[in-house]
């Protein structure tokens, strides 16, 4: 899957896309953890992804859906990489206050998923 092309000024849509990508990555990781069994380390990663997705969704305006449409990519690691690339397009402004926490979460999750 290629990174969605977004206009630089379309910050809210970018944040909504990040929420969708994180939500889908959490769901995929949860399914993988369930298949691996109750001692799978993916359960913790899935919870971290769910939390990041929920925190990102809170920043999405009500007119945008933070869960739909779902991305076509199914690999959670690749989805995290997409979220990280998209996060680079979000400007640091008053209207994006709170987004820096999402960037830190994505970075931490990406490091955890890659190890």
Automatic annotation (TrEMBL):
<protein>
    <submittedName>
        <fullName>Uncharacterized protein</fullName>
    </submittedName>
</protein>
């Amino acid at each position: 899957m290629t990174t969605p092309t977004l206009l630089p000024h379309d910050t809210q849509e970018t944040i909504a896309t990040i929420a969708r990508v994180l939500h889908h990555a959490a769901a995929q990781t949860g399914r993988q953890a369930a298949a691996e069994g109750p001692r799978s380390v993916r359960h913790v990663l899935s919870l971290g992804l769910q939390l990041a997705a929920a925190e990102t969704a809170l920043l999405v305006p009500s007119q945008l859906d933070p869960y739909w449409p779902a991305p076509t990519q199914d690999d959670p690691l690749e989805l995290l990489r997409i979220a990280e690339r998209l996060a680079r397009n979000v400007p640091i402004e008053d209207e994006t206050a709170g987004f820096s926490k999402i960037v830190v979460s994505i970075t931490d999750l990406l490091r955890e998923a890659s190890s």
